[in-house]
């Protein structure tokens, strides 16, 4: 009797993890919960969950199969261990294989001798050249709906899987199911947001293009009429309208291409002070027509640096033209309209800045977060909403920032800030490239 009780206690201890094992399990569960909170890549997250699950039950391999409801099939999403990529093309119907039976019955299955179990799907072993000895398969369920099946294979040291191992795997299956469901919800939301953004973009661009086309068609009609009457004066009056419309179409296409393509800045030796003076000269006529005073405030200690001069100039020019338009359209402004372009060299942080300030109406707080979004425009059909989005992209490609400070009724300041790259850094980079080519 005593021998039987002692044997029973030994069996219980074998089925239950000891203190050290319990700590390892708790640590694993803690890591999994942290992973779910911080990893946004679903495939990587599932791999990490599988790794932890494999460790805590001391298995040689693991796999995760997702359920394709439309095809009524299970397919491998993650396979860790000797099976690896070899089984990725296999698809199982519920009821086929141990995993298929777990999916069909919605219950965890332990098989400690697959040779004696007819449910074992041998084709997976044949394809991967992996010899399965024993296996646990548990369904992943969310609110009664089948998400997939989690498996671990071959307990190490040729031991048998226990009910305790099955309970642990069930926990990891729950975590994987939560991660998958959350990822699918996020994906659905992202898709809906993308469709909404596309609709908004098409609407905004169509209004903008329609206005441009009206200008082109109107001026073309006048030119055609003038040609029939040999009226050179009417042609000269209509031709600038046609040119401006063509320029707007060209700028729109340029902005769309710039925003849609990822690119590395083409660094060149640049004098930012000279660039800002050139921008002021380009915008002076527009400012005068809008009765806006345009001034330049330059940091005389601004060093020559390396940047993508054309792109930085385009971004800065966009900020200046926006500022002039904002000040001009501010009917309630009592003070004369002013726009200032300034440069600043931050010696302590080794960064350079271009600041564009105005005393216009400012931007309401609720709009400030949206103005850098593509296709968001405060100009109605007069703008595409791409200008600031393109400027932000250009600055981010320089590892810089584009910031806005605005008080409604008192104006705005946009600040471009990029890391200072000395002009001679280009020579050093060029010599390194030459050395690499020579070695090659």
Describe what you observe in this structure:
With 440 residues, the chain is an alpha+beta fold. It folds into three domains: 15-186, Beta-Lactamase, CATH 3.30.450.40; 189-260, Helix Hairpins; 268-426, Heat Shock Protein 90. The chain has helices spanning 2-15, 19-38, 42-56, 97-105, 122-128, 163-229, 232-260, 272-289, 309-328, 365-368, 387-397, 425-439; strands at 59-68, 73-80, 91-92, 109-111, 135-142, 145-155, 268-270, 292-297, 305-307, 337-346, 351-358, 401-407, 411-419. A six-stranded antiparallel β-sheet has the order 3-2-1-6-5-4, with helices on both faces. A five-stranded mixed β-sheet has the order 8-10-11-13-12. A hairpin with a 4-residue loop joins strand 1 (59-68) and strand 2. The longest helix has 67 residues, at 163-229.
